[in-house]
Amino acid sequence: MDFYCDQVVPGITPVDIVAETPEVLAFHHTRPYWPLHIVVIPKRHISSLAALEEGEMAIVQQMLAVAADICREVTAKEGGCRLSTNCGDHQTTKHLHFYIHSGSRLRDEHGNSIPQDNQP
Ligand SMILES: [Zn+2]
User: Fold this and answer.
1) Domain tally for the chain?
2) What Å distances lie between residue 1 and 7, 11, 95, CA to CA?
3) 97 is known as an active-site residue
4) Which of 17, 33, 64, 95 gets the most CB atoms within 10 Å of its CB?
5) Which pairing describes strands 82-84 and 98-102: parallel, antiparallel, or unpaired?
């Protein structure tokens, strides 16, 4: 299952778009893991950073350009943020995506809620 190619890019699952270019889409995660959780994806299928193929680096650069703008805005508003990507067993959806997030984690990697009073 490739949620991004199957649902998000064709517009079947509506998303709250943060930024869009001809090649890249950034939107608020539909089930956020952090209070602020933005997803940046290429509109065409790329499987992961670890499995990048010939010619795909140009799209990654475009993703980073979009991410940089978002990071700048989030940092100005929230004070800071983190950018991450998952590969291999850590990657649930096998379509390259960057996460930009800030705040205390709300859910673990299995999607289970993390009690907020247990956070430092
Ligand atoms: Zn895909």
Assistant:
1) 1
2) 10, 16, 10
3) yes
4) 95
5) antiparallel
| Residue 37, domain member (yes or no) | yes
Q: Which of 28, 97, 101, 110 is catalytic?
A: 97
Ligand 1 mean position, distance from CA 116 (Å): 33
Helices (H), the chain: 3, 57-78
Q: How far apart are CA 57 and CA 62, in angstroms?
A: 9
**HEC string for 1-27:** CCHHHHHHCCCCCCCCEEEECCCEEEE
Q: What is the pLDDT along the chain (120 residues), one digit of tens a residue?
A: 899 999 999 999 999 999 999 999 999 999 999 999 999 999 999 999 999 999 999 999 999 999 999 999 999 999 999 999 999 999 999 999 999 999 999 988 788 998 877 555
Here the CATH number for the domain that contains residue 41 is: 3.30.428.10
Kindly state whether residue 16 falls inside one of the protein's structural domains: yes
Residues with CB under 5 A from ligand 1 (ion): 2, 5, 45, 95
116 belongs to a structural domain: no
Identify the domain containing residue 43 by its residue range.
3-108
